[in-house]
């Protein structure tokens, strides 16, 4: 599996989760857990290349007229954080299966959750500053959507707005 496939896997899973029926809570949880597990297994297979200081790097033509390429890389630090994202993602998908009420729009939660996982993976695998800013902002957006999941509650809306302000300020500081 390539780095780009690993990056796209949660986003594809997010699209699939969004179109599952409202009552398919087992399928959605299984899908999210499977995406995280496949990613973690692939990361574990890359460990021997990373353990001795190696770097896995892929580069794709993005904006060649500006001399910018889409670069994904995994070094020891990125490997560690990717494993954290994927491992915690697998545990959250299991926990959320039992935590969510039957009345909750579960497909929306898992769609946002998988997209958030993909944004975090993109952030830790980014090979240049423009990608870091892009994936940081995606993480901010999906964090806002997850925190505000129960948007009918005032505290959820307030928390989502606060998270958006804090991560937006962090994005400005990053620039």
UniProtKB/TrEMBL annotation:
Positions of the NADH:quinone oxidoreductase/Mrp antiporter transmembrane domain? 126-175
Q: Which Pfam families match?
A: Proton_antipo_M, Proton_antipo_N
Q: Record's Gene Ontology CC terms? A: endomembrane system; membrane
Instruction: Answer yes or no on keyword Nucleotide-binding.
Output: no
Which key words are in the record?
Membrane, Transmembrane, Transmembrane helix
Major place of residence = membrane
Query: Where do the TM regions start and end?
Result: 27-47, 77-100, 106-125, 132-152
Protein location: Endomembrane system; Membrane
Its membrane topology: Multi-pass membrane protein
Domain named NADH-Ubiquinone oxidoreductase (complex I) chain 5 N-terminal: which ranges?
65-110
For this entry, the protein name equals Putative monovalent cation/H+ antiporter subunit A
């Amino acid at each position: 599996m390539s780095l780009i496939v690993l990056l796209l896997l949660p986003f594809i899973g997010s699209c699939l989760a969004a179109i599952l029926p409202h009552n398919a809570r087992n399928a959605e949880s299984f899908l999210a857990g499977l995406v995280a597990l496949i990613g973690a297994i692939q990361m574990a297979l890359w460990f021997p290349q990373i353990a001795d200081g190696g770097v896995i790097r892929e580069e794709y033509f993005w904006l060649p007229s500006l001399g910018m390429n889409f670069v994904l890389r995994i070094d020891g630090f990125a490997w560690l954080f990717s494993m954290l994202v994927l491992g915690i993602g697998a545990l959250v998908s299991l926990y959320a299966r039992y935590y969510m009420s039957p009345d909750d729009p579960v497909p929306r939660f898992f769609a946002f959750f998988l997209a958030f996982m993909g944004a975090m993976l993109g952030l830790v695998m980014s090979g240049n500053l423009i990608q870091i800013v892009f994936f940081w902002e995606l993480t901010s957006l999906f964090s806002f959507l997850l925190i505000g999941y129960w948007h009918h509650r005032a505290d959820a809306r307030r928390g989502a707005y606060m998270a958006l302000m804090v991560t937006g300020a962090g994005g400005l500081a990053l620039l």
